Amino acid sequence: MRLARLVVFLCCSVAATFAAPRLARADSTLVVAADVQSVWHGFVVVLDGTMRSNATHDAKRIHGVGAGRHEIAVNLITNPFKPNGTPMCKGFVDVPPESELRIKCEAGQIIVIGATAYDPPPPAFPSVPLPPFPLPPQVDPSSDAADSLLAQAQQLMGDGPPACARLGEIVRVLRDDLAERRHGRHGRHRLADETNAVADQARDVCTRPAVDSLRAAALELRPFGAPPPPPIGGPASVDSQQLNTMRIAIESQAQGAARLQMMRRVTSGQFFATWQVATLLRVLPHGAARLLALREIAGRIIDPANAQPLYDCFASDAERMQVQQILSR
Predict the structure, then answer these.
(1) Residue 290 neighbours by CB under 8 Å, 6+ apart
(2) How would you class 187 by CB atoms within 10 Å of its CB: exposed for 0-12, middle for 13-18, buried for 19 or more?
(3) pTM of the model
(4) Which contacts of 80-85 are long-range, i.e. CB under 8 A and separated by 24 or more positions?
(5) CA–CA separation, 148 vs 151, rounded Å?
(6) What percent of the chain has pLDDT over 90?
(7) What pLDDT does residue 92 have?
C-alpha cells in the first residue's frame, strides 16, 4: 500500500514538473501595424503597460507573448525627443496559444486581421568580441576648403572700400587661427561663429561674392563639415549644400518680412541641427524676426540640447529667455 502511494506521488510530481512550464510558456507572436501618414513619423506599441517596439513606421513583430488577454496601446511618434508619443488607439486583444496574431490600429480602433501558425523568432547569433584595432588619426579634410574660401574672401575684401579692407584683416587672423587647428576639431565651432560675425558686418560694406565666400567658409569650418549624427530612428538634418542654397535664397530677398517669408518656404518640412538653424537665423535682420523663425523650426531641431549656437544669435537676455522657453516646449 505504501509502495502504491509512493508511485502515485512520484508520477504526479513528474507530471507537474513538465506541465507547469507548458502553462507558463510565452509562445505566441503579435504583429502590429498602424495607419501612419508621414514617412517622418512612426509609432510604438505598449503591451500591458510596457513599451515593446522602436519608433518606426513599419509593422512591429513582438515575440514571446503569452496566450490570453492583453491590453495594447499604439502611440504616434512625431518628435524623436518625445518618446511616449500621442495615443492613436487602445484596447484589448485575445492572443491564442502557439500562433501569430496580426492586428492593425486604424481610425482609433484595434482591428484583428487574423491568426496564423506560430513563427518562432530567429536564433540569436553568438557574440564574438572583436580584437582591438587602433584608430587612424583624424585628419580634417575641410580645412583646405575653408582656408581657400577665406583666402578668396580676403582678396576680394582687400580690393574693396576701406571699411571692407579693415574686415579683411580680421579674415587674415582667422586664417592664421585655422592653420593651428588644421588636424583637430578644437575651436572649429568658434571659428565658424566668428566667420559668420564678420560676414554679418561685411554684408553692408563689401561685395556680394566676398560675403558668399565667408558664409561658405563658415559651413566648412564646422567639425568635418557635417552636423552631429541624428538620434537612432530619428530624421537626418539637411546637408551643407542644401543649407547653403537655403541661405542664399533668404539673403536674395529684401530686409524684413520678405526674408522671413522665404525662410518659412525653404525650411518647410526639413530637419536641422542647432548650428544650421543659427546659420539661417543670422540672415534675418533683428531679434524679433529670428524669434518668429525659431518658433516654427524648433520642433524640427534634432539636437535641442546643444542650444548654445542659438543663444549666440540674440543680443539681449530677454531674447535668450524666450529662446529657452521655445526649446523647452
Answers:
(1) 281, 284, 313, 314, 319
(2) middle
(3) 0.37
(4) 80/55, 80/230, 80/231, 80/233, 80/234, 80/235, 80/302, 81/231, 81/304, 83/44, 83/51, 83/55, 85/43, 85/44, 85/55
(5) 5
(6) 3
(7) 92
